[in-house]
Amino acid sequence: MSAAEVKVSKAFILQNPPLAEIDLTLGSETSTFKLVEQDIPELKEGQFLVKTAYLSNDPAQRTWIQRDADAARGYIPPVRQGDIMNAIAIGKVVDSKSSNYSVGDLVLGLFRWREHSVQDEKPAAGLPVTKINAIPGIHPSIFLGAFGTTGLTAFFGLTDILKLEKGQSIVISGAAGAVGSIAVQFAKHVIGASKVVAISGTEEKVQWLKKLGADVSLNYKHPEFKKQLDDATEGFVDAYFDNVGGEILDHMLTRVKQHGRIAACGAISVYNSLDSTHLPNYAQIITNRLILQGFIVIDYLPRYAEGIAALSSALQAGKLDVKDGETLVQAKFEDIPKTWGILFEGGNTGKLVTQIASLD
Amino acid sequence: MSAAEVKVSKAFILQNPPLAEIDLTLGSETSTFKLVEQDIPELKEGQFLVKTAYLSNDPAQRTWIQRDADAARGYIPPVRQGDIMNAIAIGKVVDSKSSNYSVGDLVLGLFRWREHSVQDEKPAAGLPVTKINAIPGIHPSIFLGAFGTTGLTAFFGLTDILKLEKGQSIVISGAAGAVGSIAVQFAKHVIGASKVVAISGTEEKVQWLKKLGADVSLNYKHPEFKKQLDDATEGFVDAYFDNVGGEILDHMLTRVKQHGRIAACGAISVYNSLDSTHLPNYAQIITNRLILQGFIVIDYLPRYAEGIAALSSALQAGKLDVKDGETLVQAKFEDIPKTWGILFEGGNTGKLVTQIASLD
Q1: Locate the Enoyl reductase (ER) domain: which residues (chains A, B) (predicted)?
Q2: N or C: which end of chain B has fewer CB within 10 A?
Q3: Residue A1's pLDDT is what?
């Protein structure tokens, strides 16, 4: 399709901002999202048209759509009822009235859940669209994963929040997820952790994480899981990289060393629930002088180059397996919400990416 | 009574280590504590006999007696079934075979809930008994409060954990308690906080905290409390000094600034409950990049002199009112548990001290 033919774009708007449960079916009154078609405005000077190819699926997107989300308490503007759902994506410039962006450029930005979008070379708010250079032999979707926000989240979580050092021990939950699978490898093979305990939710993930370098790989659905975790953390661990929150976080409050650190990176176990963050072991934070620190990778924007350099050099040294670290789903546009829902069912291994168009 | 006559000592042993509720009545099967009489052994070389006069009542004592408390997860050895209840106390040396401690010395240590105790000048475990020098015009019990662990907890919590600076804003819960009432005054009058919001549980405490310097003083039992707290923290606050945990902590997760700090100092609201630490706002820790840090004042032992110097100089400059900062209860030995229970009913203003004997 040539750019001149592009007059309308499919898009998903937020129909029902959720309080707790999400409904990813389409066409009902309770559906969280609604499929619409929108006219694409003519390009003005300084604007360019992006065709979206790959959508990043991130648990954090769930927090962006929370009903009555307080804009002052988020790190990007919340998605309100009637807004197009937001998402980080990779696309290609297919038309341009900008001198900075040319037709054919590979670009990364918050392109939202829509086929085409008009972007400004100097946006009024937020960051400019990023041009990316393809790496030979590596799929461009790596810029949504290992070399994108998820890889950088793993890197800064381990090095800056947890201050993990060679010879220290760590537990990583959501370990087969996008962030977790990079964190496991980086902690073991680059930092040189004495022990990496990985927690995931299927036997297949458990095996994969062993292959990636986890010293102990546990399935939280195993009936003896807590006992296994206690055994794996005998003598306690220096750090806990938390991607799940809830019950596993609570149990880890009893397994982190005195003066140990917890990186609060995600809480996927409780995003779709009103009331499951329940921490009977809360007092352990006091008696064992734990530091629980929340973080969001965009705060590290000024240090992204440092992170990408560390990840690239790990990749080149063969210490980072990124090819298996992605679940790429080719989906019809209509199936974007359903595909995003895989995140909350634990259906992905590594980064979950939705491909809705080709970059050709 | 001369030392030679002291042959037996009353003591309270832990009869039923609690899981949740405590039972401070005496003489029943479910009583948490049991009154006993114990023989006092003859002094050996290097030992001395202490008569206990003032008992420190601390919410943290509740964590020391938790059933099945893990010794590796505490900061002092747990009190087991049959052990004498532990407590920080002030007493007087009434007999001595030590060259370091003389009859008449005023001493501070973990003398437990008993009338008399034999102490070693070089204990096999733990810290040696501290000799203290009375301050003219000030009751010696100040060394259990403003110049003891509670004042130092306020000092290190504000300066080291919260890193509170002149011009910043802070909320302090349990503000009429021993730690809280020092924290309010030190934050306002010494550090120079722009706004100190104090939270307590009675109208009398609310008024007292205003007198101590709180800019806003709130009663958490007021039906409009959360709304009042939101108004008092408009634009959000830099720091939260948490002495209570539970629901107020949860609400404060929504009221601390992005990248703000929370000092997890106490959780009195949940100590006697199995399941009330419920944090529906947990994800705010992530999205707002909060740091929640637990601490215990004994970690600052090497820096106590610094803390006492800062508190003394505040006292001399008239910036610290310590005379009203104490609830001194003269009690019969039998009433020690009941008096300790006042802590959990919010019955004390400032430090709660039980006097069981005179220092004369």
Answers
A1: 27-354
A2: C
A3: 44
Dist CA A49 CA A97 (whole Å): 9
Task: Domain B3-144+325-355: give its CATH superfamily.
Answer: Medium-chain alcohol dehydrogenases, catalytic domain (3.90.180.10)
Closest CA to B41 of B92, B114, B110: B114
Phi-psi category of B243—alpha, beta or left, where left has phi over 0 and alpha has psi -120 to 50? alpha
Q: Which CATH topology does A149-298 take?
A: Rossmann fold (3.40.50)
> Does B351 or B262 have the greater pLDDT score?
B262
3-state secondary structure (DSSP) of residue B177 = strand
Asked if the Cβ–Cβ distance from A283 to B236 is below 8 Å, we say no
What's the CA angle centered on B285, arms A58 and B252, to 5 degrees?
140
Contact across the interface for A287 and B75, Cβ inside 8 Å: yes
Homologous superfamily of A3-143+324-355: Medium-chain alcohol dehydrogenases, catalytic domain (3.90.180.10)
Task: Nearest by CB to B280, from A74, A274, A280: name it.
Answer: A274
| % pLDDT > 70, chain B | 97
**Rounded CA separation A335/B204 (Å):** 61
Q: Which of A70, A265, A287 sits opposite B286 (nearest CB)?
A: A265
Nearest 5°: the CA angle B141, B146, B147 is 80
Chain A residue closest to B271 (CA)? A283
**B70: confidence class by pLDDT, cuts 50, 70, 90:** confident
Residues from chain A contacting residue B72 (CB–CB below 8 Å): 236
What are the start and end residues of each CATH 3.90.180.10 domain in chain A? 3-143+324-355
Contacts of A254 in chain B (CB under 8 A): 70, 73
Q: Looking at beta carbons, which residues of chain B come within 8 Å of A236?
A: 72
Q: How far is A229 from chain B (nearest CA, A)?
A: 16
User: Which among B75, B277, B285 has the least Cβ separation from residue A280?
Assistant: B277
DSSP code, position B5: G
Query: Could you tell me whether strands B33-39 and B8-14 are parallel, antiparallel, or unpaired per DSSP bridges?
Result: antiparallel
For chain A, give every residue range classified as CATH 3.40.50.720: 149-298
Query: Could you tell me which residues of chain A have a Cβ less than 8 Å from any Cβ in chain B?
Result: 63, 70, 72-75, 236, 245, 254, 258-259, 264-267, 270-271, 274-275, 277-280, 282-296, 299
Relative orientation angle of helices B178-185 and B203-212, to the nearest 10 degrees = 40
Q: What is the pLDDT of residue B1?
A: 44
Q: Using CB atoms within 10 A of its CB, is residue B331 exposed (0-12), middle (13-18) or buried (19+)?
A: middle
Q: Provide φ and ψ at B59, rounded to 5°.
A: -55, -35
Cβ of A73 within 8 Å of Cβ of B254? The answer is: yes
Would residue B260 be called left, alpha or beta, if left means φ above 0 and alpha means ψ between -120 and 50 degrees?
beta
- Distances from the Cα of B325 to the Cα of B176, B178, B352, angstroms: 8, 7, 9
Residues of chain A found within 8 Å of residue B267, distances taken between Cβ atoms? 282-283, 286
Within 8 A by CB and 6+ apart from A172, the residues are A180, A183, A184, A187, A196, A197, A198, A199, A214, A240, A241, A243
User: Closest to A267 (Cβ–Cβ): which among B282, B289, B291?
Assistant: B282
What ipTM was estimated for this complex?
A: 0.84
Q: Which residue has the tokens 């992605």?
A: A326
Per-residue CA distances from B4 to A121, A197, A199, B42, B50 (Å): 91, 60, 63, 10, 13
Burial pattern B132-163, b for ≥16 Cβ within 10 A else e, equals beeeeeebbbbbbbbbbbbbbbbbbbbbbbbe
